[in-house]
Amino acid sequence: MSSKLCLLAFCLMLKAYTGQATAQELRCQVTVNSNQMAQVDRSIFDGMEVGIREFMNNTQWTNDRYEDFERIECQIFINVVKQEASSGGQVIPNRYSGTITVIAQRRIFNSNFDAPLLNHQDNDFTFTYAPNQQFLYSENAAQANLTSILAYYAYLIIGLDMDSFAPKGGEEPLLKAQAVVNNGQNLPETGWRASEGNNNRYWIINDYLNQAFSPLRDLIYEYHRKGFDYMVGDMKKGRLGALQALEKLDQVWDQRPNAFLLQVFYNAKRNEIINLLKNTPAPEKAGIIPILKKTDPAQASKYDAVAR
Predict the structure, then answer these.
(1) Per-residue pLDDT at 98 exceeds 60
(2) Least enclosed by CB within 10 Å: which of 5, 8, 20, 111?
(3) What is the residue-averaged pLDDT of the chain?
(4) SS3 of residue 72 by DSSP
């Protein structure tokens, strides 16, 4: 039984372990858009879409065993923009570039509502894909760039989800995501190295595992478990729990102002936080508004709009 289910069983459900066969961790919807590829047989990308979906959903990513209802809902949107060419201008067969957007949700306990965990567009997305290509993955060695990117985000999604159910509960899959990055140092494609910028796959997982960002991981747990999971039974208690958790953003900012990981957090959670504030009495949210404006300065006007 997964650590997520164990926690819920102990705290809320006292659900007995059945020992029955269980499903993989992810329930991932995949969409590959190749509309900009006028000169390429688009059926190639139909096969790619099916292959990625099967890879994400049929791979056993951890040693935990998930019931079907526990599987993490997520989506991958791939936009193939162009076929790569050599420095001499010749088209490279089966070589493409574009963007990949990864979205994941976490079910709120005892409800039909989902909380967003991740909503990230990765622009460092160059890959090789041949018709009917198989997706093969090993934890011990670098894979093709496409396979490595998919494995990285699978582990990141699972780690974020586990962190939301137990304090730093996602350590193992997050370390596996970091291992994918370490193996990716030898890949020719970008997105894996610290020297290539401060907003790539390297920095997301490096910072998330950095002690300086420990308050953000604590926030993820408290915001969901002590906040949103309580709201169905006690709206005020849950709302206050979520708001108190958000105060930890101030600690993160003091450690690493303008960190890219804060942008990743807000890209997933900003709209949810704003909707929460819309339904919160002014005295309850007065303390958190300045923190949100400080740590998400480009969107300060949105917090001002819901301050009253």
Answers:
(1) yes
(2) 20
(3) 91
(4) strand
